[in-house]
Specification:
Structural class: alpha+beta
Radius of gyration: 31 Å
Shape: elongated
Number of strands: 8
Number of helices: 2
């Protein structure tokens, strides 16, 4: 009998080892899946806000860099360089900066691309579908000294569907200095 008892004890230990050491129970799996579902349901709305915030920051950075590039090209070339809103990339046809823009050498200053003027850089529309750029101008020109040709302060307000409280503002002073500001006063 002892031999039988030892054999059945070994069998019980092997069975316990197999049940406890392999896999998960159905209840454990259901609990993990419920936890994943709750975490996903809570985090998805915040993910959308995060994506919008990253998009507005990226668009503001791209627009700021385009203004800085236009100014540096005017100084480097020793002549007037303009940047205008454009939907085509070959002319100043855009009414919205969010549709894209063109940087070009503009020696005769009509702030339009004339025959023979060099297009330096073209930027397509801003990323995201809801970014808008509010500005009182559709073109901006820098002189060879790096100052604005108009000599007046110009502001660009970049906003998305969330409104001005989440927007960014870029200000170009009369001297041509570009400043990235915080929240704009309005988006219109």
């Amino acid at each position: 009998m002892r031999i039988l008892f030892c054999d059945s004890a070994r069998f019980d230990m092997a069975r316990r080892r197999w049940n406890g050491g392999m896999g998960f129970t159905l209840i454990e799996l259901l609990m993990v899946m419920a936890l994943i579902g709750v975490i996903t349901a809570v985090s998805v709305p915040y993910l959308n806000t995060l994506v919008q915030s990253i998009q507005i920051k990226t668009n503001t950075r791209n627009f700021y860099n385009a203004l800085a590039f236009t100014r540096s090209e005017a100084v480097r070339r020793g002549g007037r360089v303009s940047m205008c809103s454009s939907t085509t990339g070959t002319s100043c046809t855009g009414s919205s900066w969010a549709s894209g823009w063109v940087v070009f050498a503009d020696p005769n200053n009509p702030q339009t691309i004339d025959t023979g003027e060099t297009i330096i850089k073209v930027h397509e529309s801003l990323g995201g579908t809801s970014t808008t750029v509010a500005a009182g101008v559709t073109a901006i020109s820098y002189l060879a000294s790096g100052i604005l040709s108009t000599g007046t302060l110009t502001s660009f307000n970049l906003c998305d569907s969330r409104g001005a409280s989440y927007g960014k503002s870029i200000e170009v002073t009369a001297t041509g200095r570009i400043k990235s500001k915080g929240i704009p006063a309005s988006c219109s």
